[in-house]
Design a protein that fits this description.
Blueprint: E1 15-20, H1 28-36, E2 39-44, H2 47-52, E3 56-60, H3 64-73, H4 77-85, E4 90-94, H5 95-98, E5 103-104, E6 119-122, E7 134-138, E8 141-142, E9 158-162, E10 164-167, E11 176-182, E12 184-192, E13 195-198, H6 206-220, H7 226-234, E14 257-264, E15 270-273, H8 294-303, E16 308-313, H9 326-334, E17 342-345, E18 351-352, E19 358-359, H10 361-371
Parallel strand pairs: 1-2, 1-3, 3-4, 4-13, 5-6, 14-16, 16-17
Antiparallel strand pairs: 6-10, 7-9, 8-11, 10-12, 11-12, 12-13, 14-15, 18-19
């Protein structure tokens, strides 16, 4: 499949967009993708900011019921409904798409925003020998003409991670933007005018995903940032034929995952290393083997076509304050230039720093998500 290589033209004018951060998961990836496309991003959880947004992005992760409870608690439900029903520029992502529907089998009895008719259902893939959740790269088939999918070519794939999906139905048919096959065909995108939402993560789908975000921005404002226009035009960098309606761009794809073992050398600098059973020193007990800097290598592997980058922390950092964990800085920097899933492993445990401050493993994981990790 093709992710292509991200293009980042130098000159841009800033387009103001609003990113709804209701308090769950990693919004840093989408924030960084929008900045890379030339946007001035306001990150907010305030109802008044939603009401006044010129262009609104709603990324969602986690459970349907928890998300709706959080939106209710923050008094965001009615402003969101009003904004979307007014037909203003809106892009929902993952759970941000599912909450547009009336309900979900994931959370019986919990009402969604109800903007799109129908209900979200469970995957029924046991007979196909497939796993749930779907985690990985898959293709889409356009169901209606849309600039969002205008650059999609044969072999292009996007990144999915979800356990529930929107089934095909007569009620949702007028809204369907695209479909994907995982066991059976399901709705992976909806659109009506300037309102759109997708099940996949364009911000984690390399140049193909950046092209979709760029096309959305270009269709949402009279003066889109040049970077967004360039990304939309470039697509995944593919010279293959564009897709016809109803044809899948790809099926579930194998992934190329770059795995980087990261530890501190004797000078205290983080380096990528390799060793035998964690013996990472040169022969004879010399210095820690240094294969390069984590952020630079992550960007190199991304640009060479890696579908995911994993950082394995093999240094304890037992006495670091949570806010000063070295891997947090690595993730924050890498997520600015690597628009594929970033995973971190190692060091996800209860911590007590030199000042005696305790941080639970859950707090450590949350800090990694906030820094830019997609999986821990």
């Amino acid at each position: 499949h093709s992710r292509g290589r991200a293009r980042r033209p130098r000159n841009s004018t800033m387009t103001r967009v609003t990113l709804l951060d209701y308090g769950a998961g990693n919004v840093k990836s989408l924030y960084n993708a929008l900045v890379a496309l030339g946007c001035d991003v306001e990150q907010t959880d305030k109802p008044e900011a939603v009401a006044s947004a010129a262009i609104l992005f709603f990324p969602g992760v986690g459970a349907f019921g928890s998300c709706m409870a959080m939106l209710e608690r923050k008094q965001l439900v009615e402003p969101l409904r009003a904004y979307i029903r007014a037909g203003r520029p809106f892009l929902g992502i993952c759970l941000g798409m599912q909450t547009l529907f009336e309900s979900s089998e994931e959370s019986p009895g919990v009402a969604g925003l109800g903007v799109v008719p129908g209900a979200v259902g469970r995957f029924d893939v046991a007979s196909h020998g497939l796993c749930v959740p779907q985690i990985g790269w898959n293709g889409v088939a356009a169901a209606q003409p849309s600039p969002l999918l205008g650059s999609l070519a044969e072999g292009d794939a996007l990144y999915f991670v979800h356990s529930f999906r929107v089934p095909r139905s007569e009620a949702v048919a007028p809204w369907v933007l695209c479909e994907t096959e995982y066991g059976d065909r399901f709705v992976s995108g909806v659109a009506n005018g300037k309102v759109a939402a997708v099940q996949f993560h364009p911000e984690k789908s390399g140049a193909v995903g950046l092209a979709l975000l760029g096309a959305f921005l270009a269709s949402s404002t009279a003066e889109p940032p040049p970077r967004a226009v360039a990304a939309a035009a470039a697509g995944g960098g593919s010279t293959r034929p564009r897709l016809g309606a109803g044809k899948l761009s790809a099926g579930p794809c194998r992934r190329i995952v770059a795995c980087l073992d990261v530890r501190a050398n004797d000078a205290g600098d983080l380096v990528v290393t390799k060793g035998d059973q964690y013996d990472c020193r040169e022969k004879g007990g010399g210095e820690v083997r240094n294969l390069g800097k984590p952020v630079a290598l992550a960007r190199r592997y991304y640009e060479e076509g890696a579908d995911e980058v994993t950082f394995l922390n093999i240094t304890g950092f037992r006495e670091c304050p949570l806010t000063d964990l070295p891997m947090l800085k690595v993730l924050a920097e890498a997520s600015r230039t690597c628009f594929v899933p970033l995973c971190v492993g190692g060091g996800i445990k209860d911590l007590v720093d030199a000042q005696g401050t305790r941080s639970s493993a859950l707090q450590v994981a949350d800090a990694y998500f906030r820094a830019g990790a997609d999986k821990v």
